[in-house]
Design goal:
It is a single chain. This protein has two domains: 8-80, Glutaredoxin (3-Layer(aba) Sandwich); 91-222, Up-down Bundle (Glutathione S-transferase Yfyf (Class Pi), Chain A, domain 2). Helix content is 58%, strand content 8%. It has helices spanning 17-29, 45-50, 70-80, 91-116, 121-141, 154-158, 160-173, 184-194, 197-202, 206-222; strands spanning 8-12, 34-37, 59-62, 65-68. The protein has a four-stranded mixed β-sheet, covered by helices on one side. It is globular, with a radius of gyration of 18 Å.
C-alpha cells in the first residue's frame, strides 16, 4: 500500500522480537516494504549510516529518512499510513497504550529473559518472581479479545514477545512463565494473537529459533 514513488525498507534480523514488531505493524497496514537482513556480528555500512547512534536494528527507512527504536517506528507507521490504526484516537487511551507498551519493555522482557539466560541461580529466581508479577498486571489489564479491543492494537504488537518468545524460552529453560493455569486470559490472548492470519504469516519459523537459543542456553549451563 506504499504510494507510487515511496521507498520503504526495513533493516533487521529474523530472530529479533523488536524487528518482528515493525514487520507486524507494516503487514497489518498492508505496506509494501523491502526487508534487508543484517549481520550484527559484522554491521553493514547501511546500518551504520542509518542508525549511527545505537547501531542496532530495527531501522525503518522511508524515502531515505531513517527511524529507529521499535515503539517509535510503530507510532510513525500509524501516523503515516492511516488505515487500520493501532493507537486509540482518545488521548487518555492513547497515553495508556504507550504506558503498557513501555511496561512490557521495562518489566517483562529483561525479567523473563534473565529467568532463563542467567547462570546465577538467585538471579534466575528473582527474575522469575519479577516476570510473574509483571505478567499478572497484564493479565488484569486485558479486558477483551485483544489489548486493543476486538482488533489488534499498539499494545498487542508490543507484546508479540510475550505471545511468541516467552513460550519458546520457557520450553528451553523448563519453566512455566506463561501457562493457561497461571494466566488464563493472557494465555488465551496469545493464542488468538498468534492465530490471526497476518500475525501467523509474519512470525519467524519456531524450530530454527528454538535451536539457536537452545544452543546458547546449553553453552551457558555448561559454563556454570
Amino acid at each position: 500500500m506504499a504510494a507510487n514513488g515511496e521507498e520503504v525498507k526495513l533493516l533487521g534480523v529474523a530472530a529479533s522480537t523488536f524487528v518482528c514488531r515493525v514487520q507486524l505493524g507494516l503487514n497489518l497496514k498492508g505496506v509494501e516494504y523491502k526487508f534487508v537482513e543484517q549481520d550484527l556480528e559484522n554491521k553493514s555500512e547501511e546500518l551504520l549510516k542509518y542508525n549511527p547512534i545505537h547501531k542496532k536494528v530495527p531501522v525503518l527507512v522511508h524515502n531515505e529518512r531513517p527511524i529507529s527504536e521499535s515503539l517509535v517506528i510503530l507510532e510513525y507507521i500509524d501516523d503515516t499510513w492511516k488505515v487500520n490504526p493501532f493507537l486509540p484516537a482518545e488521548p487518555y487511551q492513547r497515553a495508556m497504550a504507550r504506558f503498557w507498551a513501555k511496561f512490557i519493555d521495562d518489566k517483562v522482557l529483561l525479567a523473563s529473559w534473565t529467568s532463563v539466560f542467567s547462570n546465577d541461580e538467585k538471579e534466575r529466581e528473582k527474575n522469575i518472581r519479577e516476570s510473574d508479577e509483571a505478567l499478572k498486571f497484564l493479565e488484569d489489564e486485558l479486558k477483551g479479545k485483544f489489548f486493543g479491543g476486538e482488533e489488534i492494537g499498539f499494545v498487542d504488537i508490543a507484546a508479540v514477545y510475550i505471545a511468541f518468545w516467552v513460550p519458546l524460552i520457557q520450553d528451553i529453560g523448563g519453566l512455566q512463565l506463561l501457562t493457561n493455569e497461571k494466566f488464563p486470559k493472557l494465555y488465551n490472548w496469545s493464542q488468538e494473537f498468534l492465530n490471526h492470519p497476518i500475525v501467523k504469516e509474519t512470525m519467524p519459523p519456531r524450530d530454527p529459533l528454538f535451536a539457536f537459543f537452545k544452543a546458547r542456553y546449553d553453552n551457558l549451563i555448561a559454563s556454570e
